[in-house]
């Protein structure tokens, strides 16, 4: 039995990777020193892997930004708009990632169902596939020279790479994959010749719901590779769910298959049993690569008693690359020992693999299991409720609507915003100073009040119909609630790469989630006291809080979402008592959490929608519940959105407006809805006439009685001037349409 990992965090123990990138981008660091310092980060990281005793050390999974971008650049897939600097220059690479003066960045999107974002490769008609540089080979040689490591090169496989690219039609998929295969063969041949013991081909796209035709392309791809490089030891690596077409995957002419045995709903395990003995090599993802809990090694052994007999060669691994967990528990110096006992970050997971390999006779085995037992004893006892009843508001929408209309008498097509206003430099500076203890509680809260006053006045000037307080006191919409709800804990250094140099620090759910005291009432009621216009309270919804946290592994997500929902019920009550009766419960991550496999989606939507309904269940009929989602494809979710039973939903649609409006033609959705009328991601000030057109288009399928006018997401990344100008135009557009112009 061997051990390996599919990939390891790039950011370094203290995010030194991030700091180097940012110093280089800002011009503080020359290209030469940047390269030199980065090499140190890379080598230190390899050293950690080597010292852990891992048998197969990944190389080439490190990246200066993103592995999909690396692959695109390696094959000369550089869009025309970046032509100028050499194709393999850092300048081109970062221009694609971040945009340049003359060319906008490549699109970025979520990597499967994770919060990691990759750069979407663009296929352009002028693209001549070539190998600009055999990057995995460079990485392999570097590891060998520096530390004598014969690493396991990691490549994004041809099928996944092209499947996730844009700019090609479905029927072109096969053609492009086959063109790339010959280039892959060359890269693989060189790696094989250099002595790579195993070559990992990442093909996570095999876990999506695939068509017959797509599976045939995968078969042709690997058949062709087997012809071109018959002796190269290829490991076809999948993760994040079970493989579609397991029989056929096991028949592919590769040395080995890598499977996720944690996030597979039990399906991969079954496939393994049914295909016993068919593969020479199996890489088994037996410990959770996406969460941060210590593994119960006894349980792993119990679950896979036949592990040893499955193949001649078994490799023990995490379920996926450790990119998705923080680097090391060693930096959590403030955390209570009793909690720390329950955790394993990337580095500790390497230790777990080593223990699993050695078995229960290993000297540290008992201590590991003992610590886990103590952790459970101390932190996993309190939950009151595990089953979740079906929930919903007592008074139906039609009646609520009347009550709301009587109370507020809002004009047709009411105008509002999504919640946040610009988090300008002074806001961020003052908040960090406050966090460091350099600004007193009183000074901080009066600073926040001033911001609120300023923006209430601006909203009055613009003439919006429904106000917000602006969220100046919040850093991140999940972290903020994680810090205030019982059961969550923030880590000191639990950073995970989200996109480029940006890292997030998801809160950790240790215990039962409970409401302790009001979290948002003070700022919200203060803002409301400054205006006669209705003002929306802002909460983050239960599904989003769960999806963007490290969640417990001993409870179903559904139960944690329900606990969060019950906690938020209390916050809604507290806001109502403070006189706030429009409350927005944001669920931007609801769509993103949709399982990869179609067969799992209905069950997810069922509990996710129910958690939202539970949150609003006890709200007074007179309270108007809003929600907001930001993701560009909702066509398949309108029924679920309807079932959420929010009085008003706002959806980010600037990128798929047409399709969504089309979807409403055949649907009977009748509640309040705001389809964002302009894209907040762009600094461009939208024209009133463009927005008016957009509204008129929507009004062909939606009634003016139900339509709200708002930007498509929060405004925290914009400047004050951009925000005010854009909102003034938005208001003008609303007036134009109202007066029938
Ligand atoms: N209310 C939040 C804001 O305006 C919503 C953010 C989001 O949808 N991601 O910032
Ligand atoms: Zn949004």
TrEMBL record:
Gene3D superfamilies documented for this protein: 3.20.20.210
Pathway membership, UniProt: Amino-acid biosynthesis; L-methionine biosynthesis via de novo pathway; L-methionine from L-homocysteine (MetE route): step 1/1
Sites where the protein binds Zn(2+): 628, 630, 652, 713
Binding site for Zn(2+) 1: 628, 630, 652, 713
HAMAP family per the UniProt record, alphabetical: Meth_synth
Naturally occurring in which organism (per UniProt): Alkalicoccus urumqiensis (Bacillus urumqiensis)
Residues annotated for L-homocysteine binding in this entry: 418-420, 471, 586
Pfam family, one: Meth_synt_2
Annotated gene: metE
Cofactor: Zn(2+)
InterPro entries: Cbl-indep_Met_Synth_N (IPR013215), Cobalamin-indep_Met_synthase (IPR006276), Met_Synth_C/arc (IPR002629), UROD/MetE-like_sf (IPR038071)
Protein name as annotated: 5-methyltetrahydropteroyltriglutamate--homocysteine methyltransferase
């Amino acid at each position: 039995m061997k051990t390996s990992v599919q990939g390891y965090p790039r950011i370094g123990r203290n995010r030194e990777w991030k700091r180097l990138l940012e110093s280089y981008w800002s011009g503080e660091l020359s290209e030469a020193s940047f390269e030199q310092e980065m090499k140190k980060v890379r080598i230190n990281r390899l050293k950690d892997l080597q010292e852990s005793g891992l048998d197969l050390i990944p190389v080439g999974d490190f990246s200066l930004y993103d592995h999909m971008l690396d692959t695109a650049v390696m094959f000369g897939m550089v869009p025309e708009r970046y032509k100028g600097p050499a194709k393999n220059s850092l300048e081109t690479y970062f221009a694609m990632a971040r945009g340049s003066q003359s060319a906008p960045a490549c699109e970025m999107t979520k990597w499967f169902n994770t919060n990691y974002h990759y750069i979407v490769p663009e296929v352009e008609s002028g693209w001549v596939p070539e190998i600009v540089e055999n990057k995995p080979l460079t990485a392999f040689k570097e590891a060998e020279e520096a530390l004598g490591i014969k690493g396991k090169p990691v490549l994004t496989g041809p099928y996944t790479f092209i499947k996730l690219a844009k700019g090609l039609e479905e029927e072109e998929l096969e053609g492009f994959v086959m063109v790339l295969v010959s280039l892959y063969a060359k890269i693989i041949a060189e790696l094989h010749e250099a002595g790579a013991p195993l070559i990992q081909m990442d093909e996570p796209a095999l876990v999506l719901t695939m068509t017959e035709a797509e599976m045939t392309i995968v078969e042709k791809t690997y058949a062709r590779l087997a012809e071109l490089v018959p002796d190269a030891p290829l490991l076809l690596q999948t993760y994040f769910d079970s493989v579609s077409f397991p029989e056929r995957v096991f028949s592919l002419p590769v040395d080995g298959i890598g499977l996720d045995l944690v996030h597979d709903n039990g399906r991969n395990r079954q496939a393994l049993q049914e295909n016993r003995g068919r593969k020479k090599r199996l890489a088994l993802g037996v410990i959770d690569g996406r969460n941060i809990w210590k593994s119960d090694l006894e349980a792993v052994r119990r679950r896979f008693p036949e592990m040893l007999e499955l193949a001649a060669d078994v490799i023990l691994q995490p379920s996926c690359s450790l990119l998705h967990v923080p680097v090391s528990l060693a930096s959590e110096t403030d955390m209570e020992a009793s909690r720390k006992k329950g955790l394993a970050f990337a580095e500790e997971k390497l230790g777990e693999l080593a223990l699993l390999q050695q078995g229960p006779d290993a000297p540290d085995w008992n201590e590991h299991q003992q610590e886990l037992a103590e952790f459970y004893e101390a932190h996993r006892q309190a939950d009151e409720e595990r089953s979740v009843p079906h929930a919903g508001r007592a008074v139906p929408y039609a009646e609520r609507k009347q009550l709301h209309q009587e109370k507020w008498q809002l004009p047709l097509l009411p105008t509002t915003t999504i919640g946040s206003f610009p988090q300008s430099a002074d806001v961020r500076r003052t908040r960090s100073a406050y966090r460091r203890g350099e600004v007193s509680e009183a000074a901080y809260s009066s600073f926040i009040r001033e911001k609120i006053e300023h923006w209430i006045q601006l909203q009055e000037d613009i003439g919006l119909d429904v106000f917000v307080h602006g969220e100046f006191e919040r850093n991140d919409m999940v972290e903020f609630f994680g810090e205030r709800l019982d059961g969550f804990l923030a880590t000191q250094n639990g950073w995970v790469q989200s996109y480029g140099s940006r890292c997030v620090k998801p809160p950790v759910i240790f215990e039962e989630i409970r409401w302790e005291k009001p979290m948002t009432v003070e700022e919200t009621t203060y803002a409301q006291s400054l205006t006669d216009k209705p003002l929306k309270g802002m909460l983050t919804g239960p599904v989003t809080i769960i999806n963007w946290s490290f969640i417990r592994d001993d409870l179903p997500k559904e139960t944690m979402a329900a606990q969060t929902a019950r906690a938020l019920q209390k916050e809604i009550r507290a806001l109502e008592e403070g006189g706030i009766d429009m409350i927005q419960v944001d669920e931007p991550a609801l769509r993103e959490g949709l399982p990869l496999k179609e067969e799992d989606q209905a069950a997810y939507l069922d509990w996710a929608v129910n958690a939202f309904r539970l949150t609003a269940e006890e709200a007074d009929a007179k309270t108007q519940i809003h929600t907001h989602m930001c993701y560009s494809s909702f066509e398949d979710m309108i029924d679920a959105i309807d079932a959420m039973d929010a009085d008003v939903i706002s959806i980010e649609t600037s990128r798929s407006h047409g399709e969504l409006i089309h979807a409403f033609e055949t649907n009977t959705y009748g509640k309040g809805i705001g389809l964002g009328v302009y894209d907040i991601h762009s600094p461009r000030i939208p024209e009133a006439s463009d927005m008016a057109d957009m509204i008129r288009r929507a009004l062909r399928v939606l009634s003016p009685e139900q339509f709200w006018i708002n930007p498509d997401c929060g405004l925290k990344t914009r400047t004050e001037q951009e925000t005010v100008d854009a909102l003034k135009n938005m208001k003008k557009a609303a007036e134009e349409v109202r007066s029938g112009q």
